[in-house]
Amino acid sequence: MVNEFVKKLREDIWQLAEPVIASEGLELVEVECLRMKTRWLVRIYMDREGGVTLDDCSEISNQLGDVLDVHDLPPDPYTLEVSSPGLDRPLVRDKDFVRYQGCEVSIRLEQKVDGIRNFRGRLLEYVEEDGRKILVIEMASKLYRIPRDLIVKANLVYRF
After folding, report:
1. Which cysteines bridge via disulfide bonds?
2. Which of 5, 89, 139, 150 is deepest in the core (most CB within 10 A)?
3. 65 with 40: CB under 8 angstroms?
4. Distance of CA 103 to the CA centre of its chain
5. Distance CA 90, CA 92 (A)
6. pLDDT per residue as tens digits for the range 41-98
């Protein structure tokens, strides 16, 4: 029940945040909603070509805070954090997997594929097969076909 509430809250905040962020020429990357002891923590990750500035974060925080307050989301006190996605950018939407083909990624699955739950390798392709979206990952010189719907978390891997 709690997970469904958090999922719905995340979706509702995403719907409100996306047009606010887009109006400033930015792209919404991810929304996280975490229930803390006495309040909610809402994290908004956004990006644009050339990166996000501190002024961008401040402006979106002010605008989005007002929008969330008007819609009473979340329904209890909350802290709003707005930032860039960082070097280990989360991969959330289909277009993220398409955009970052050829890049190194880290993927955690809800169940094992070929005996493996955590993958770290190069994202070679993102395709649709028989109505199912599949990531083709090269890891340790072997190819793995990972169903998109099994992914719990996916991020870019940045090498220093």
Report:
1. none
2. 89
3. no
4. 16
5. 6
6. 999 999 998 999 999 999 999 999 999 999 999 999 999 999 999 989 999 999 999 9
pLDDT the model gives residue 9: 96
What's the CA gap between 126 and 121, in Å, rounded? 14
Q: Which CATH class is domain 2-83?
A: alpha beta
H or E stretch covering 5: helix 2-22
The class level of CATH for 94-156 reads mainly beta
- Is the distance from CB of 29 to CB of 87 less than 8 angstroms? no
Domain boundaries, the chain: 2-83, 94-156
pTM for the model? 0.83
